[in-house]
Amino acid sequence: MDVRTRFAEDVCYVCGCKTNRCCKGCRSVFYCSEAHRQKHWEDHTEACLEIRAAVTNLKEAEDTFIGRNRPEYRNLRGILADMERGKAPGPEVECFCTVFCSPVMMARFNLITAYHQVNSHRGTVNACNTAITTQFLGKCDPMKIRCITANLLVRVGSKQNAYDFIRFWLINGDKYRCQGTNPKPFIPLRNTDAFEPCRRLIKPFKKASVSPPASFLVPLALLKFKLLIDIKNLRNLQLLRTKLPFDVVHMIKKYFYTTDIMKRRHDISRIDTLRGYERVIKKLEKDLDTLFEICGQAFEGRYVVWRCFFEQDPKNQARRYSKEVQKIYNYSADAWMETPGGYEWILKKLGEACDRELFGEDRIKAAAQVAHFERELRSKSDRMDDMSVDSSEFEEEDDADSDIPYFESEDYKESLYESLSESFDFGFGYP
Questions:
Q1: CA-CA distance, 218 to 178, in Å (whole number)?
Q2: Which of 37, 206, 290, 368 could form a disulfide with 31 if both were Cys (CB 3.0 to 4.6 A apart)?
Q3: Which pTM was predicted?
Q4: Residue 135 forms part of a structural domain
């Protein structure tokens, strides 16, 4: 797994234009002008101050740690500098899992949380890089942040690294130990097959009569969904071969690879028939069905992991569920929303669950509610696409709601709640 996530092109948080000027306090939000920075400052102040405090606390914790602890830990600055350059620490580096290391690891966890609350692309990238660095320092994951790292990698990191990371922890789990004279290599998996059937990863859990961790299966489902979208786009491109020359289709084919996994899979690029694409699509859909059902039955059951995405006020309503469900929602919801068709797929699967679990009049009501919500979600998404206007027209406006992403707006939350809250109360109920 790579030590650092590469930065993508940054855009202004207010108007969305390309820029390279960031907030000097947190270095997680970008603005194209001083006017836009001042316009967003009132909303950004709290998050910016939290990041500054978290960075200061981490520096103080590391300085205290280096001065007081054993010699093998005193090269922390050198280790962090090597990771900044992309070099992973070797097996000779001691794992930061002892009680003496807990202040440093806790400070790093607080910094990850502060970065994630900014809700910007660079803030998420910073959170991802901090999480990866923390994983390499605490190889046996003493802070239990592996599920957070997996979600952040799927959202902004390398998808191949994300799959390698998820596969490593699904196979090893709490069995991984960094102690001993010959510790196992940390995350030795590289470029594993992301198209392999999920049953290979889930089979050991079934043999042991243990439920697989849903905290890893939700980001794994999102990763599989992204691959499914790419394959379906390639299949649709294949249909154009009857109308376009072969050379043109072959030339534009590479632009349909949105993930690094697809770019490395030469066997996928060599598929030249509709039947070949349909075979891959069928396998991915089967994996997604399996992951959806396993996550739906996890924790309190009754699909709470997926239903939590459709609450009227998810961050508050999630408190009714276990801490694991809250963690999954907090670090997965935005990634699913940013993926085109992600929420629609979850809604479709919840509708199928209603059809299976409910009977009689309840089934009819739930199906009508889900169908109504699906139409509303599509129509609102289309309207948001049509409203793309030059940002200069909004330069003088004081409308605070214009800076709020659609999926965080009150209208969106109300439409979600009205369409789904009653539907799933018919048979599933709340815990």
A1: 27
A2: 37
A3: 0.81
A4: yes
